[in-house]
What does this fold into?
Amino acid sequence: MVDVPEVSVRALGPCRIASPLAPLIDDKRTTQHYVDEDDRVLLDDTLSMIAQRNVPIDSLPGFEPAGPRRKIFFDPSKTRVGIVTCGGLCPGLNDVIRGLVLELTSHYGVTRIFGFRNGYQGFIARYGHSVLDLTPELVSTINENGGTILGTSRGQQDPEEIVDCLERMSITILFVVGGDGSLRGALEIGRVARERGDKIAVVGVPKTIDNDVPYIDQSFGFQTAFSKAAESIRAAHVEAMSSPNGIGVVKLMGRHSGFLACYASLANSDADVVLVPEVPFAFDGDGGLLRFLHRRVEERGHAVVVVAEGAGQDLLAQEDPATPQGSDASGNVKLRDVGQLLTRRITDHFAAAKMELNLKYIDPSYVIRSVPANPYDSVYCIRLSHAAVHAAMSGRTEVIVGRWRRRFVHVPITMAISHRSQVDPAGDLWLSVLEATGQPVRFC
It folds into this structure.
């Protein structure tokens, strides 16, 4: 029998207040397009996975569905809300802020909503960041711009000080929009509030341009990001085709997960090679990357390489084992530059073979992060915002909202930070990449 994950969601207490949205859902029951609040969304979606659980059907693990409840925990007229955006930029941050504010005000009647500036720093007195009074008028058009009107920062702050701030301001709901590190911080905020006996709901909206948060189908902004990244791959392809023995190298985000590189490459099928952290590669030998590129250029006259920033870190460490990598403000190990290594090794190889080479290197990372969300992501952002507000008003805490098997669900933060979602080398996504590029299963 496989392990059964803990999928239960923490609640602050029983819901006794009639929800203003109850008339919209009173007569609804589970259908193909709606899940009732008393139902569950199964974790597994194949017969073999369910069979491996070896438990009765009513014991199968399943997520609590997201959406409005018939009864809520908080009295909207007495509820004060905080919103914070943390970590790196991602398309859709302003859409999420706008969606939260409009849902809180328009449907629940909450009137006091505060935006904390520059990530978790905004709660800490010594930084001196003022709070922003978020109103429907203020947020009405912010979705047209990239970035976040609240600003952001990386790194943790003392959860005790953060809860002190929430208590001083009488805030009972906190929305945290951020990735793995930010959600770990949110979990700590929830823990401190719980230990103090505070009834504060902490709800996360997961943000990761790498698409590496587990137990959600996709993170917001990801579709925009890989669409924008595909433009850089197309540019690299045009450059490579326009010069003798042209090679374009495009480095994309992806510290531990290569989803962005995979999807962007599949979007226009211009890449000849895709390198991701999950699949090690070698430069040298008959089966190595350099020989493959050599042959591809001889056959076609050009080639394009797409590499995720976390790929090849083992090779970089071998080249310079004495230099410590250090960590960034979020505690992540600083990556060595695989793009520079690739360009150098490719250049040296073609020089040794006495072949002309015209190599173009493109790193579009900040261009991708800063753009507004595309229409698909805008829709996804507003639906996530609605789900987050419903979860918070019903007293759910230490939870994120996301979509699983195309259903919106509540996922305990403990599950969301338990590991990283990664490209499976034995899965169908990587198989599609191999089919599209024609590269071997491994460069070795």
